[in-house]
Amino acid sequence: MYEIIRKQILNSQTARLDIAAPDVAAKVKAGQFVILRNHEMGERYPLTVASANPDGTITLIYQKVGHSTKELDAVPVGGRVLTLAGPLGKPTEIGGVARAVVVGGGLGCAIAWPVARALTQSGAHVDMVAGFRTKDLVVLEEELARDSAALHICTDDGTYGQKGLVTDALRSLLEKGPYDEVFAIGPLVMMKFVVAAAKPFGIKTTVSMNPLMVDGTGLCGCCRVTVNGKARFACVDGPDFDGYEVDFDEAIRRLSAYRAEELVMDHPCRIRTMGH
């Protein structure tokens, strides 16, 4: 069993916890995730590792959007979850990148943070664009600012930072350029339009996919995505893919396939409550 060491409420929808998992903390890299199970009768659900800490804990950031994440939120400090498997998925590839724009949307910023941190630690110049619906939903501002050369916050309603979409800020940065790569993590629709915004500049754009997921080992096939016309599994082949090759329209349809059941069961199990 895995003990919750620290817990912090970030806003009405989002919380952060540190859980004791020294084996994972010793190995995990940016972009990888774990799969948890709260108790014997619980489902398996994935969360991206936001940080590995010197005390052997890992930081997980989640939204209280379904049955399992609400159960997790109810576990107090000192309480435990039954299982935690990982690190899973392929790490984000950052080699050879000297200048990058990392774009995070909503809780996708919890995944963008370790990517920005890894790039910065490698010596790259990182401009971070973080988008939120409104000021009250802004998270990780201090961490994102610390681990990037410049942080550009956008809100849909203009209550904080720059009013507008992340694509507006991205285009402004790319026009000034040059950059080696754009990394986008957030809702599928957001990533689709980030790719469209980057394409005229011919800049490599990596996206982190968030399909439905059950086992996290490539056996169930739920996390299937179409990349360059071929079926790939986000859990073992990704979650990062070349944004120009992803069939976003299909991915959006698949992600919505069980929307009615989710509303009835209050039981979504998407990769990254991980936060997209």
Any overview of this molecule?
This protein has 9 helices and 16 strands. The C terminus is likely disordered. The chain has 276 residues and is α/β, with parallel strands linked by helices. It has a 7-stranded antiparallel beta sheet with strand order 6-1-2-5-4-3-7, with helices on both faces. Strands 11-10-9-8-12-13-16 form a 7-stranded mixed beta sheet, sandwiched between helices. It has a two-stranded antiparallel sheet with strand order 14-15. Helix 5 packs parallel to helix 6.
Short description:
The protein is 27% helix and 32% strand.
Write the layout of secondary structure elements.
Elements: E1 2-9, E2 14-20, H1 22-27, E3 33-37, E4 45-52, E5 57-63, H2 67-74, E6 80-81, E7 83-88, E8 99-105, H3 109-121, E9 125-132, H4 141-146, E10 150-155, E11 162-163, H5 166-176, E12 181-185, H6 188-198, E13 204-208, E14 224-227, E15 230-233, H7 234-237, E16 240-242, H8 248-255, H9 259-265
Parallel strand pairs: 8-9, 8-12, 9-10, 10-11, 12-13
Antiparallel strand pairs: 1-2, 1-6, 2-5, 3-4, 3-7, 4-5, 13-16, 14-15
Helix pairs in contact: 5-6
Question: Which key terms come to mind for this protein?
Answer:
single chain; 276 residues; alpha/beta; 7-stranded antiparallel sheet; 7-stranded mixed sheet; globular
How many E-type strands?
16
Main structural class: alpha/beta
Low-confidence stretches: 265-276
**Within the largest sheet, what's the order of strands?**
6-1-2-5-4-3-7
Our measurement of the CA-to-CA distance between the termini, rounded to an integer number of angstroms, reads: 27 Å
Instruction: Classify the helix fraction into a percent range.
Output: 25-40%
User: Which strand-content bin applies to the residues?
Assistant: 25-35%
Sketch the topology as an H/E string, one letter per element. Answer: EEHEEEHEEEHEHEEHEHEEEHEHH
Based on CA atoms alone, the radius of gyration comes out at 18 Å
Helix segment tally: 9
Sheet of most strands: 7 strands, antiparallel
Question: What is the global morphology?
Answer: globular
The averaged pLDDT comes out at 88
